[in-house]
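Sequence and fold
=================
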Amino acid sequence: MSKTLYIMLLVGGSIGIFLCFIAVAAAGGGISSEEIAPFIVSLMLLASIAHLTFIHRFWKSIQDGQPRMSPGKAIGLLFVPLFNIFWLFQVYGGFATDYNNHVKQKAISAPNLSRPLLAFNAVLILVPVPILNWIVWTMTISRICEGVNAIRVK
């Protein structure tokens, strides 16, 4: 998994959207929200597709063990209104647990993932705090990509 690609798409996309809103506010009426909306929607769509691809790829990496869910289930249940709030913690926090069990069970020399970091990442997806989000997202993406790449080599 390409750490740089996912950081650029996920973190970069959210920074781009944030900057669009700042541009609209700073322009003081010079740029209308209708003019910038197609750009924002495009960035949101790209970031959403990248996020779902990222989730699918990291869950797919541990499917030869006994994970709690398939990649399709991890993504599919994120589309269920209200339940998706609970499910987000299963997707991230659950992955840390299942990944660590997989590494231990297969005796793979790979770094463990921090369940608190991944669970905190889920919190920040629900409650955006721009700078903190970007820092935690970058750490989360880096750790997951390093872990997935380490188990693929084996």
User: Anything to note?
Assistant: Residues 3-153 form one domain. The mean pLDDT is 90.
